[in-house]
Amino acid sequence: MSSSTEPDDAMRRRIPFHPLFLLSAAVLALSGAIGCNRQDGVHRVGIIIGLPFFEDAMVGFEERMGELGYAGGSAIEYIYKTPYRDGEEDQQAVQDLVDAEVDLIVAVPTEVSIVAKRMANEHGIPVVFTNAVVEGTDLIESIRAPGALITGVRYPGPDLALLRFERMQAIVPAARRVLVPYAESYPIAGPQLEVLRPAAAKAGITLIEMPLQDVDDLAGRLEALIADPDVRVDAILALADPIVADPSGTTLLDRFARERHIPLCGILASGGTNGIFDVMIQNADAGRRVADIVDKILQGEPPLNIPVVSAETFFYIDLGAVDALGLTVPEGVLAQADRITR
User: Fold this and answer.
1) pTM of the entire structure?
2) What residues does 152 pair with on adjacent strands?
3) Would you say 313 and 283 are in contact if contact means Cβ atoms under 8 Å apart?
4) Kind and range of the H or E element at 221?
5) Within 10 A of 18 (CB to CB), how many other CB atoms are there?
6) Residue 180 contacts residue 209 (beta carbons within 8 Å)
């Protein structure tokens, strides 16, 4: 997927004829469900990636599709669109796929999934989302019956936020004032904060919430904190958030944490950062789950009958970063880690 890093490019790949497509075509013709009505017999699947760090989800998607029998040949065509960080480009990307008469759209993450649902469903095109927060977004009607033309793999944002908070409590028990930066305009922050606020209040921890417009705003707000001697920050807790996950945003938070010798929680120590742990999903795993759903739809299963599933969470600890801060990971927490680095 190397060419997917170019925002304006669309990549087209053709994958082989699935052995169940003949049966599916008959079912689809009778039921009015999704099918291929083109004379060339090629199913077209549009894929929209709204943020670059979710690209590996589609690596897992294509890998799993290959295992399901969609590999090499000419029965399926993937059309990629990568409108990174631009709401207007999101809409254009969906429109381009509608104009290409795709049979189905795979969308990642939340923001493009919302746009895809609104626009594609008007044309009877189903949407399968991944890495999308469903809480507070009106993306689906319910987990078990998501909607007539939408289903997918939920990004467990609130679950991750609470798990990160609990891990922070265990590893940094002295933290009482915790900085929580987030992109104010993105719909994924609210559901995470809703679960954090009562948990923090119960634990006697003050959340220093920092709503942001962009990375430049983060730089300015951190400078203001540095200049204010009356503001104490004991730790930084990262949400699942585009500004925090942006390499520039991560670098700013890392610098702030290093200068104060405070733990950076929810960002794994990688690329020289000071992050001590992370609880996250594996994008490739989420993509594989999407492939299972897409396979069902291409075989004639209505999206309404396919419940939304959640991506699996993984817990990583960097003991080197923990030790550098003079902290200790309790044995019980250490035993829950999926990966430990030193």
Assistant:
1) 0.78
2) 129
3) no
4) helix 215-227
5) 21
6) yes
Q: Could you tell me which residues are beta bridge partners of residue 154?
A: 132, 310
What are the tokens at 319?
């003991």
- In this structure, what token pair is assigned to residue 118? 């609104």
Pair of tokens at residue 56: 């590996």
pLDDT in tens, 159-177: 999 999 999 999 999 999 9
Question: If residue 111 lies in a helix (H) or strand (E), which one and from where to where?
Answer: helix 110-120
Q: Which helix (H) or strand (E) holds 289?
A: helix 283-298
What is residue 211's three-state secondary structure? strand
Q: Cα–Cα distance between 38 and 141 in angstroms, integer?
A: 32
Q: How far apart are CA 98 and CA 292, in angstroms?
A: 23
Tokens 């977004």 locate to: 137
To which residue do tokens 């199913």 refer? 43
What is the 8-class DSSP label of residue 53?
A: G
Total Cβ atoms within 10 A of residue 2: 7
pLDDT, tens digit (0-9, with 9 covering 90-100), for 33-46: 455 545 556 778 99
What interhelical angle do 157-171 and 189-203 show, nearest 10? 30
